[in-house]
Amino acid sequence: MIPLLAKTVNRHRWWIVCGWFAVIAASAFFAPRLPGITRGGGFDLPGSESWQAADIMQSEFGGGYRRSVQVLYTHPEWQVSDPRFRAAVEASVGRLMALPGAWESTTYYRTGIPALVSPDGRSTYARISFSGSEEDIQPLVPSIRELASDESGLATNVIGSPAFDYDMQITSEEDLQNAEKYSMPIVFIVLTFVFGSLVAVALPLVLGIASVSVALALLFFLGQRLSLSVFILNMVTMVGLGLGIDYSLFMVNRFREEAASRETVSEAVAATMATAGKAVTFSGVAVMVGLAMMIPFTIVFLRSMGIGGMLVAALSVLVAVTLLPALLSILGRRVNSLRVIPRKYLLAGGGRFWRYFSRLVMRRPVAFLAVSAAAMVLLAWQVTGMTAGVPGVDDLSAASDSRKGIELFNEKWGQGEASPLNVVLETDSPYAVWETGFREGVKELKQRLEADNRVARVDAVSDLEVPAGFTSVLKDPLLLEGFARENPRTANMAAATVNLKGGSTTTVLKVVPAITPRSPAVMELVRELRADILPGIERLSGARAMVGGGPAEAVDFTDSLKQSFPWLVAVVLLITYGVLLLLFRSVVLPLKAIFMNLLSVAAAYGALVVIFQHGWGAGILGFTKPEGIIPFVPVILFSTLFGLSMDYEVFLLSRMREEYEAERDNERAVTLGLEKTGRIITTAALIMIAVFGSFSFAESIVIKEIGVGLAVSILLDATIVRVIIVPATMKLLGDWNWWLPGWLDRLLPHLGGHKI
Length: 756
Hints:
single chain; alpha+beta; 28 helices; 8 strands; 64% helix; elongated
């Protein structure tokens, strides 16, 4: 198909160019609209225990974190009991309740619940609950913030899941703009020193931007049907610019090489497609296979990253094998026009250094292999100390209202108050929550938890003093109204812990951690609650117990990844092996390529542990050391890196295969392959590092970890693995590199002949 495609592109080059530019022009209209339909967050795990607990809290109590915001009110001098403080808060809440969808407010002045007031008495918060979904509430956040504040002197901050995710979306978009601002000039400078001519430089830039733009436009239409995370913008930009520019770099470089030795431009285009074009196609397939690993996850965040990455990878290949050769066919040798850098200063092509270096590796393969492999293994060994962290306030810009509000809330109430555990107990019998035996069971649970040094406080229905026969009061609206009038604090606390309107079948215990909710100790408390503590209380054996809240969600998320990740990795490895077996027609080379990729990924994981978990990069990269690595970051890195690292393996081994087919001399093939591709692989890596590295200075810790992991892995892969370990192992294996059993040779299809 490659020769046929080359002929088609050459024959219809003007139609192809015009068609692509029409598509790109249309995408320029739709791509900017994608951020408007993406959503922040997307880290929930549908069907998990924490998800079920959150659903019950929303449906039975109306206070679920997904459909409510908390407005924090603070004054440097006034006490919450001050009439001026009360008047300002009640006026603010009154304005908020006029918003569409607002249906319930909870304040200290209406309920008398002490936990709504900070220990210093100068801060309080109101919870405003809305109908509809979180996606309906997020657009209201700017209005909520505007209406909450006034000129009374109270400082206000709006926090809660809708506000947090809204600010995360804004932070993500700002990170993307900053990354593009810093990376594109670096990419331009590198390409200028690669090609030396502005025409050749423009091709990779235009095609990389085209791949991203078309992908974002297509995702806009896809987003009408699917929920897409806002982080898809960062993923598409990182992968699209990296792959689009890299593929164009390899194609243009090979075209210039072929054009110098061919009589006609059409022959040069055909030769470029038969060599670099085939390598680009197989490389793209390897990238898509890796990124596809994220799509089976039900988590919107991961699924979005997989969909966006696969789509832009496919478009990068399509652009590289259709639009780019069409442009090269039109430009011909004018691709070298507008030269601004003399040839002797260029970074691409052959060179005495790479010839000398490749022969040096060939002479001392054992020494080079031992030293370089030891360095990679030492870094990869750090993975053994990796612990799982939890996304949190670090994901937001320091200037965002949510981050300021959460930090102030933690300062006033303590860190645990903002992210408690919610133990939901659900029964089948009406009014069962008020039975003596059940309340005694809740009391026992409360006592066990409060005896744990990881727990600061537990709010439970067992704290309430209610009269005997309270069930009869609940059944009679007049008696209940009278009780609430005479005991407003007890009545409001009862409504906060028991589903009074739903028949008193469900109660929730608010467990406030004494330490940071993102710590591994709190994660372990969640597991102990589920496995030992709750099943061990006999009086609660008839109730369905669910543990929810932020820490529980993190546990469910992490455990789900641990269960699925190994199986998905195995599938990716098998498919990748099959693809490379077809390309290289060797049993050994695909195995070696997979092992090298795994080594690069493991080293990247180790770098994450050193930089983020140990905090070695906190000062340079500007972050507060997290409790551990965000658990989905290793999944994203593996999916992305496994394909991207295969890029250089495919280009390097493809060139070695060409040389081996010509002379059947393994050492000569390895030496010439490295000599002819060493500089271009290193240059491509510089571009990738510039693109990915620009995201390492993002405000979001998630994007920061992904950007650093990708940049470090590409750096190690291009400087140690591909140019030292790969040629050293190939020298040691000799002709075994190219071994393919006869029976398998007959079974495998020949993809356009042996020549790569």
